[in-house]
Write the structure tokens for this entry.
Amino acid sequence: GTDFRMGAGTYNAYNTSLTHYHRLSERFAFSTGGFYDYQGGFFRNTVRDEKADKGQSAGGRIRAIYLPSDNWKVDLNINYEYSDQGGYPYFYQGSLAPEAQSEPLKPYIGKISNNARSNYYRNLLNTGLNLEYQAQHFTLSMVTGYQFLKDCMDIDQDFTANDIYTLQQKQRSHALSEEIILKSKSGSRWQWTTGAFGFYQWLNTEAPVTFREAGMGMLNQMLGSVIPSQIQVEMGPSMSMNILPSLGISSRTMPIGGSFNTPLLNGALFHQSTFRDLFGLKGVSFTAGLRLDYLQLLPKFALQYDFARNRGNVYATVSKGYRSGGYNIQMFSEIIQGSLRNSMIDAVAGSKEFSKFASMLEKFKKGGTNISETTLYKPEYSWNYEIGTHLTLFNGKLQADLAGFYMDTHDQQISRFAESGLGRITVNAGKSRSIGAEASVRAQLTDRVSLNGNYGYTYATFTDYVTNGKNAQGEVVEISYNGNYVPFVPKHTFTVGGRYTQPFNNCKLLDNLTVDVNYKAAGRIYWTEQNNASQALYGTLNGRIALHKGNGEIAFWVNNALNEKYQAFYFETMNRGFAQQGRPVQAGIDIRCRF
């Protein structure tokens, strides 16, 4: 059949999709479809007088399944998506400097005020081919994947009404992956999985920073700070001449380019075995797994006890986690600026000869800064411990999950802006520790009423994170973040919701009506390592009423019904604070028809 959907919402939001499913025979079937989505934007840029976050996307999908025999299955997926979005609707929060009262940008506090357009577009193609063979005692699957990515990100990098500098980052990527998995059939006491994984990515990134008019003024000021106030030139016996030098860049803009080819190769071998009824103990199972991921050994161990009559289980797991390192591509322009300044200083330090400037560019060309070492951030490691239980009670009408966890992380990767504001970077933050618990409940009270709820608590702090920073006087000092909360990790998260279904057995117009309501909350969330900015606990109320008749449905929905004000994101750059606000109340209607 065919599934048609369309919807509309406040703030000029529209969407539509069409998908067709077709089975040509008992051995071949396919589906194909497309979609279009338009968002009019929620937040206005007061300087450009336009919505900062409007955008549109479109795409299509094809899936085909072929069964050449009873033992073989071929599953092909092809997805393409194009999106063009306005982005980065960051509200200026004010200066963090002591002289904030004299801040010239004070009239823009609480407003989106970047003077250059910020947007993002992307072309993304994903294809996957899964070949599966069912043998008598095992299943073999071979999954081949290919991804093509072409995107472009433009950002007003100072995020203010000042015309300082902009960043453009273009990526072009081809990625190919292959995974081969052997799995045992269910039913035996020994369950096992083994396989191999390979991945290669070709990635080219262009990341130029363009200094604009106000930015050129900053560079000229930097040049003036390293030029001597006067140069004395000896003209002969008892004769000299004083020269008052000046140096400046006359161009109104100056691009600093950056082009990077960063191919990525990865491979892994893995195996996991589960032994049921261990040592003859009914319901007890032990799992051991090991993954060799490009010279990284990642073990996993689990012990589990299953209750009788499928009423649930209790378990304990230990595993090692790993996140690879990389390079801060957006940091390159900052390194160039710093190296240029140092070359200027070296060229004139202790010299009375203006001609020394002639050798400055030559020295700059020779370098002296190790780009790889400066932009590199290290891998992140963690040991993870968890105990918990899954319960199914009252003939399946009540399901509950409860877990407690502990994570010990080394070289934790933290995202922040470079000191100059020239791009976002990732740094390693020593060690951290996370302790927490999670609980969820799903209950079917009657045939018409169901309830669900979950709660999570996480206490994530730095345990060994000492670095260098600048104090209020601009002096470099040692700073300890030990005991501070890890940024972007909410301390509390919870959701409560329910569904009510009202059937209309004798109604010709309606079959039934469903009402869904949920309330989602999170907080407190700290945004910086210093813990000087945070979002308190907040929540949003959401609802949906759907009317059903046959294969048709019409639904009315509302998100953030109470119009809760909250920060979805916050960061600091160039000694200023910026925040992205959460979306305001939005309502809409959806229509669906299946034929």
About this structure: The two ends are 5 Å apart (CA to CA). The first strand starts at residue 2 and ends at 9. DSSP finds four helices and 40 strands in the chain.
